[in-house]
Please model this.
Amino acid sequence: MVVGVYVVEPIGVRAAMSGMEREYIRDRALQGHEPARKRGKTSGGDGVTDYDMQCMALHLRDQEMSLRDIAKRLVITTGAKGASIPR
Model:
């Protein structure tokens, strides 16, 4: 009569399984991003740039200004961070 069988499972096996699970979840999420994008949906928060801000950023970039300097000049006017300077 077998009372109980205890199988020792190395920690590495569980770590590998959890890594595979994370990768599977990530792949499934990424597979959903492209169809959503085609339907006009975006991931992440609301956009905070408008056409004018994009034009100004591209203009400053054409003048070979660094991205840090461009970010210091632009002010977000919409969204949760309205009227703030990006950091």
